[in-house]
Amino acid sequence: MIIAVDGPAASGKGTIARALARHYGLPHLDTGLIYRAVGASVLREEGDPASEGDALAGCSFDDFLLEDPWLKSEEVGKAASIVSAHPLVRKALLLRQKKFAAQPGGAVLDGRDIGTVIAPEAEVKLYVKATPMIRAQRRQLEQRKGGVFESLDKVLADIRARDERDTKRAEAPLRPADDAVTLDTSFLSIEAAVQKAVGIVEAAKAKATAESE
Ligand SMILES: Nc1ncnc2c1ncn2[C@@H]1O[C@H](COP(=O)(O)OP(=O)(O)OP(=O)(O)O)[C@@H](O)[C@H]1O
Ligand SMILES: Nc1ccn([C@@H]2O[C@H](COP(=O)(O)O)[C@@H](O)[C@H]2O)c(=O)n1
């Protein structure tokens, strides 16, 4: 079973994807981390994320970079959202993600284009959303835990800028797949959101079983 989880920044998609992977014993891939590694490589080489050439060079990163806590910073998140708009970058990273999705037994992947591009064949597609303000509050709390103190206005502006770039780009923009189930986590605790996600997966499995009989 392939479970595709998409949604905007800080919507809770990673939290839900990890919980689903644990619940169903499936491997999980955070595809945002891959784009973050490309963004980080470009910044480290003092390149320009807006340059397709620099961004493409960043695609040959060493996998150890995926473990670097710096990848979680807003600086790298912003660079990731700029490099990810380049068609050649998306092409360079496509096969790795498709292979992960297609492994025997299935997988859970989260990102922006899993249900639309990486695994359109996924049995379950979730589109996780929350209001920009709630996402900014979550992100601010997360940052504070990591010792970063930014105003809510700044965090909200960053979230809105990221949404704008991710939804407006020409190549694989963030959008729900036509057959995705939307899960609004704005007023749900993590536990309640995960419970609803498991319910959506179970409903999809039951429907698939009924159709195969
Ligand atoms: N339902 C929820 N209620 C409260 N906090 C939540 C909820 N879901 C997630 N969070 C918290 O919000 C923050 C962002 O969640 P998460 O990392 O899952 O989002 P994301 O969509 O994967 O973000 P990104 O796109 O940056 O990877 C985390 O600190 C997480 O613990
Ligand atoms: N499938 C994906 C995943 C991510 N991106 C881009 O990377 C940025 C960082 O992703 P996070 O999930 O770690 O926040 C994100 O803003 C996207 O621009 C993508 O394009 N496709």
UniProtKB/TrEMBL annotation:
<dbReference type="InterPro" id="IPR011994">
    <property type="entry name" value="Cytidylate_kinase_dom"/>
</dbReference>
<dbReference type="GO" id="GO:0006220">
    <property type="term" value="P:pyrimidine nucleotide metabolic process"/>
</dbReference>
<keyword id="KW-0808">Transferase</keyword>
<dbReference type="InterPro" id="IPR003136">
    <property type="entry name" value="Cytidylate_kin"/>
</dbReference>
<keyword id="KW-0067">ATP-binding</keyword>
<keyword id="KW-0963">Cytoplasm</keyword>
<dbReference type="GO" id="GO:0036431">
    <property type="term" value="F:dCMP kinase activity"/>
</dbReference>
<dbReference type="GO" id="GO:0005524">
    <property type="term" value="F:ATP binding"/>
</dbReference>
<comment type="similarity">
    <text>Belongs to the cytidylate kinase family. Type 1 subfamily.</text>
</comment>
<feature type="domain" description="Cytidylate kinase">
    <location>
        <begin position="3"/>
        <end position="201"/>
    </location>
</feature>
<protein>
    <recommendedName>
        <fullName>Cytidylate kinase</fullName>
        <ecNumber>2.7.4.25</ecNumber>
    </recommendedName>
</protein>
<feature type="binding site">
    <location>
        <begin position="7"/>
        <end position="15"/>
    </location>
    <ligand>
        <name>ATP</name>
    </ligand>
</feature>
<keyword id="KW-0418">Kinase</keyword>
<keyword id="KW-0547">Nucleotide-binding</keyword>
<dbReference type="InterPro" id="IPR027417">
    <property type="entry name" value="P-loop_NTPase"/>
</dbReference>
<dbReference type="GO" id="GO:0005737">
    <property type="term" value="C:cytoplasm"/>
</dbReference>
<dbReference type="Pfam" id="PF02224">
    <property type="entry name" value="Cytidylate_kin"/>
</dbReference>
